[in-house]
Amino acid sequence: MFLRIFKTTWAWLDARLGISALVVPMITHRVPPDARWWYVFGSATLAAFLLQVVTGVMLSFSYVPSSGDAYAALQYLSHDAPFGRLLRGLHYFGASAMVLMVGIHALQVFLFGAYKFPRELNWITGVLLLGLTLGMGFTGQILRWDQTAVWSVVVGAEQAGRAPLAGEWIARLILGGGNIGGMTLSRFFVLHVFVLPALIMGLVGAHLRLVLRNGISEPPKPGAPVDPTTYRQDYAALLEKTGRPFWPDAAWRDVVFAAGMIVVVVLCAFLLGPPELGKPPDPSLIHADPRPDWYLLWYFAVLALLPPATENVFIVFAPLAAGVALLVIPLLFPRGERHFSRRPWAVAAVLTLLVMFGALWRAGLDSDWSPDFTAQPIPQKVVASTDPLVQHGAQLFFSKACIHCHAIEGNGGRRGPNLTDVSDRLTQEQITIRILNGATNMPAFGDILKPDEMKALSVFLESRREPGRKSN
Ligand code: HEC
After folding, report:
1. How many angstroms is it from 435 CA to the middle of ligand 1?
2. What's the pLDDT tens digit per position in 356-408?
3. Which one, 47, 62, 329, 344, has least CB within 10 Å?
4. pLDDT by residue (tens digit) across 64-77?
5. What angle separates helix 428-437 from helix 451-462, to the nearest 10 degrees?
6. Which CATH superfamily is domain 32-366 in?
7. CB-hemisphere CA count at 13 Å for 104?
8. What is the CATH topology of the domain spanning 380-462?
9. What is the 3-state secondary structure (H, E, C) of 365-389?
């Protein structure tokens, strides 16, 4: 009875909407026979994205995109709202999964040479999707609106502000005005929930349409180069001879893998929970260690480790150049061998990239360049002298926050040079000048220190020398 009603309704709808005419060829189209587990990462990315849409919409029911209320809303969501913690966890680990999957998918496509003719546009839309995915990660982290988030924006805007020509304009665009505030959060909210997702959905549509139109690439064989004049015929012949229907012969792997991925995301969300919120934002405090989530940590390291002089150019042009380089790969190499054993340079490029990301990521985890706000006062036995001026200087070294950036015998941060034996390098006068005027990445203390404090600090630092060496 019910089945009959269902069947009639479906037939009525289908006759008018043409759903099966659209979908049946999509799921039954023939694919190369040996497209195995390597091919699951694209669909897994899509699955992660859908999870993000669902959890994101649910989160936005409780989120308040206002700089005064966002933090409290997230606190409520994380600690009191039913399932709020789980939901945040799902969205966080879902984002991680999506970045991971899209990254592996891009690597696999590159290594398999699947971007070559006729799939150049598949690659190009894919690169745009990769960039948008990272953009979603960045804008999403800002929405937490805690100390770290706010400082990431400030750092980002400051960096962008130093770009040649358009710098100030870009900075104003990021902040939504001259200063960080309510407008800033609104801006990132709109980007994160409307603009970027809309672009992603449009591009995913185009990407999938291209996958259907050009077919899934057959696994590469050494000695079978792509020749645009014959490729389509050969591909059609291959499908004719050995192709199998996408569903269920190939698609079951996509389903199994995506389901496994979602189970892992749910487990992580349930067991580990979302990242704790930092302290509420307070722009007057510099006690923040802005550190993005793991998948952006490498870029944070790039910015922090670059010599200051190269930075301006790097911030704007390097990402641009990297993006353009990725986009033009298929236009430069549309033909030729696909198997990695015949493409040593491609393999070398991937290995270099992986090592580079790994190293930057490690550096990002350590982040020596961030001031160490947990540093304790210098222990008595490290202060070499009982001279009251030296003692006073050692206290000021802690209380005036020098210790956050400078270490003395292992006590203190590593943002600035180690000052354990600073007077071996600098005279007292040079030390004083440096403290008064500051330097790149060191604030000037001229207006902050009273003359006697200045004196005590420089005497203390002057006392820092290799043991045994006489004062000069
Ligand atoms: C925000 C981090 C930071 C703080 C806080 C800071 N410094 Fe520095 N300091 C640096 C950096 C970075 C340099 C290296 C600058 C350069 O590029 O020449 C430096 C350089 C110096 C130098 C020269 C060292 C050398 O070997 O060339 C002295 C001396 C110094 N700082 C003393 C101090 C004192 C004293 C204080 C506290 C009143 C202080 N600094 C606070 C970051 C900091």
Report:
1. 7
2. 999 888 888 877 667 777 778 888 888 878 889 999 999 999 988 888 888 99
3. 344
4. 998 888 989 999 99
5. 130
6. Cytochrome Bc1 Complex; Chain C (1.20.810.10)
7. 14
8. Cytochrome Bc1 Complex; Chain D, domain 2 (1.10.760)
9. HHCCCCCCCCCCCCCHHHCCCCCHH
